[in-house]
Amino acid sequence: MVSQPKWSALATAVGPAARHQVALAPYTSMRVGGPADLLVVVESAKELARAVRLARQHSAPWRVLGAGCNVLVSDGGLRGLVIINRAASVVLENREMEAESGAKLAAVAERSVNGGLGGLTWAAGLPGTVGGAVVGNAGAYGGDVADVLRSAVVLEPDGEVRERPQSWFEFRYRGSKLKGVSGIEGQRPQTDGRESSAPSGADWVILKAILELDMGDAIALRAEADEIIERRRTSHPPGPTMGSTFKNPPGDHAGRLIEQAGLKGHRIGGAQISEQHANFFINVGGATAHDVRGLIQHAQMEVARKLGVRLELEVELLGRQETA
Ligand SMILES: Cc1cc2nc3c(=O)[nH]c(=O)nc-3n(C[C@H](O)[C@H](O)[C@H](O)COP(=O)(O)OP(=O)(O)OC[C@H]3O[C@@H](n4cnc5c(N)ncnc54)[C@H](O)[C@@H]3O)c2cc1C
């Protein structure tokens, strides 16, 4: 007798777009990660909300992924339903931009620059979606999401959709109240050895963001955005990466500390600490989550041992992390 795949009733409810046992590596910027039990790609905020509601109805764990630029998915993959968010419609009216959460932040920034609107040039060329950027309060070159977000439309744990003001998100450096607790030590408790089934953002889903922009000078904004794109191109190493692995400790730079600990170029399996920028870990070919996690632990240990600084993860560890 052929056994039914797990979550087959949920798959039927989601519809023909749902696929079983899909490798997540291609859905992450690090190109690492095992299979999702079930995966669906959604193209609108309405489809996104529907998929989450169905997962809840079937008591399945679920996780929304944007571009997968800020996560390390375990080699064992993720249980339940993974929803890849490609809801990307954007409406610009006067100085207000309403963007669905799967829109690419860089594309939204480009659109604001082309419209002569300021406030988002820092996001020029920044990988990831609007939803991921809100969760992690993405920022660069002196700006961040908290500066421009007026409000966001959120699917709540009770199934209602509400518009929440900027203050509700409790933004902090590279975080908000929706960012899951992560870190080698700080992962959600899995003391009984079971897989964490914690959904994204502790159960809230961002459907849309409303950004408030300023009137600006189109030529000056273009020049500023181009300069930032060029700075990214020259300072960021090429290759599959999650961007900055660790947060910068107050008054210092994680990359500088890792370099000072003599770890530039250090390699475990297919994962390497970049020679160019030590806070960027690169998949130089065939890296596993186990390799990357080993490198994370090694960097944390060596920086603590040699320099007395505890590096805190910026990236989120998803799925059950096997011991490195
Ligand atoms: C080369 C490179 C450079 C980078 N440079 C920067 C930089 O300068 N500054 C910076 O801040 N970051 C940077 N990053 C990190 C990354 O681009 C940002 O964190 C980005 O905002 C993540 O968006 P994402 O769509 O990829 O999120 P994902 O990685 O897909 O998701 C991140 C978290 O958000 C949750 N999530 C995603 N969408 C939603 C949603 N709609 N509702 C609820 N939860 C959601 C996910 O479940 C997960 O917990 C860089 C990454 C790379 C690869």
Record keyword descriptors for this entry:
5-stranded antiparallel beta sheet; Uridine Diphospho-n-acetylenolpyruvylglucosamine Reductase, domain 2; alpha+beta; Uridine Diphospho-n-acetylenolpyruvylglucosamine Reductase, domain 3; binds flavin-adenine dinucleotide; Uridine Diphospho-n-acetylenolpyruvylglucosamine Reductase, domain 1
Give structural notes.
The protein has 324 residues and is of the alpha+beta class. It folds into three domains: 8-85, 2-Layer Sandwich (Uridine Diphospho-n-acetylenolpyruvylglucosamine Reductase, domain 2), CATH 3.30.43; 90-231, Uridine Diphospho-n-acetylenolpyruvylglucosamine Reductase, domain 3 (2-Layer Sandwich), CATH 3.30.465; 237-318, Alpha-Beta Complex (Uridine Diphospho-n-acetylenolpyruvylglucosamine Reductase, domain 1). It has eight helices and 19 strands. The chain has helices at 8-14, 45-57, 105-114, 130-135, 145-148, 218-235, 254-260, 289-307, and strands spanning 19-23, 35-42, 62-65, 71-73, 78-85, 90-93, 96-100, 117-118, 139-140, 143-144, 149-155, 161-165, 205-212, 214-215, 241-244, 267-268, 271-273, 280-283, 316-318. It starts with 7 loop residues before the first helix and ends in a 6-residue tail after the last strand. Residues 181-201 have low confidence and may be disordered. Residues 29, 63-71, 85, 101, 126-129, 131-133, 135-136, 138-140, 174, 180, 200-201, 205-206, 236, 241-243, 316 line the site of flavin-adenine dinucleotide.
